[in-house]
Write a structure and sequence with these properties.
Blueprint lengths: L4 H26 L4 H21 L15 H16 L6 H8 L3
The structure holds zinc ion.
């Protein structure tokens, strides 16, 4: 049976989550860093990785895949993904209304 596009995305996301979790646990075991320090370094690494990949898609080093980085929108999306995963309650319609001052 063929996998649907959403099943492929879910499987890919789970594979990435597994790899990141394994790396997080390895770093906790091998260092004296506090969990939040490790997470901060991971977040910094994601930001640096974004920058490197965006640079590789910006003239004169344009990758042929066609992705055009939009730094403000891309970073907003990354922040939103982090917030939604870390604090799911913030993703509810009521929480969004409170933040927007409409509740
Ligand atoms: Zn590319």
């Amino acid at each position: 049976m063929l996998e649907t596009a959403s099943e492929t995305k879910r499987r890919d996301a789970e594979a990435i989550r597994f790899m990141v979790t394994r790396t997080f646990m390895d770093v906790l075991r091998q260092t004296n860093l506090a969990p939040l320090e490790v997470l901060e370094y991971a977040a910094t690494a994601i930001g640096t990785m974004y920058r490197d990949v965006a640079d590789a898609h910006t003239w004169p080093r344009e990758c042929p895949c066609g992705w055009e980085p939009d730094m403000m929108a891309d970073v907003a999306m990354l922040k939103s993904a982090l917030s939604a995963a870390a604090i799911p309650e913030l993703d509810s319609p009521l929480a969004r209304a409170v933040v927007a001052g409409n509740a």
